[in-house]
Amino acid sequence: ELDRCFNLQVAYVAGNESRIHDEVGWSEVVISDNYDTTVFNMLKHGLRSSGIKFLVGNTMEMVVEVAGQNVLLVHGNSIRGSDLQKVIQSIKGKYADNGIPLSFIIFGDIHSAYLSDNFARSSSLCGSNPYATGDLQLSGRASQNVYVFYQNGNRDGVKIDLQYTSPDVSYEIHKELAAYNARPATKTHEIILKVVI
Asked: What is the value of pTM for the model shown?
């Protein structure tokens, strides 16, 4: 329905928790071996006769143009530090050196939302995870960020809290699919003997 009323474009960057194999890798070949890529390609194939345009590019970071503004989509695993503004400026500088001025950067990774003038970090639809709460000592909530970009250069962003939802507007969740574990199964138990051939 939406593609009848709007010019829809879909882009993605791969996350680390959707990886198929245990190890996290950030090369283009390794990072694309995950369920994010699989779902994107399934949608692209299944909706090929629709008016939706699927943007194909670098799986780890992608620049998309929205209302004349260059927006960088990146997983965010390297965006760390006590001064996020300086980290964001260095990323913008890297792209500017290659002739691509960035207007805004959207990333995720640590399951805790953050909105600012030049960048935003999305949380996660599943809420916080053991890495964020345990290793990083951050608290997060289930949420989704929504952004509106305007031709005049303005942009609006809002965090929509999804931590507690009404059962009246929910859908059936199969019990076997409801489990969420951010760590691979091999890291949740001890391996006594592993034979690799």
From this structure: 0.75
Cβ proximity of 158 and 146 under 8 Å: yes
Q: Tally DSSP H helices, then E strands, for the chain.
A: 5, 9
Is the Cβ–Cβ distance between 121 and 90 less than 8 Å? no
Contact call for residues 63 and 71 (beta carbons, < 8 A): yes
**The pair of three-digit structure tokens given for residue 151, joined into one six-digit string:** 């031709």
As to burial, measured by CB atoms within 10 angstroms (0-12 exposed, 13-18 middle, 19+ buried), residue 81 is exposed
> What backbone phi and psi angles, to 5 degrees, belong to 29?
-70, -45
134-183 tens-digit pLDDT: 777 777 888 889 999 999 999 999 999 888 877 776 667 667 666 555 45
Beta bridge partners of 54: 10
Question: Cβ–Cβ contacts within 10 Å for residue 77, how many?
Answer: 15
- How close are the terminal C-alpha atoms of the chain, in Å? 51
Query: In degrees, to the nearest 5, what angle opens at C-alpha 25 toward C-alphas 102 and 120?
Result: 30
Q: What is the DSSP letter of 26?
A: -
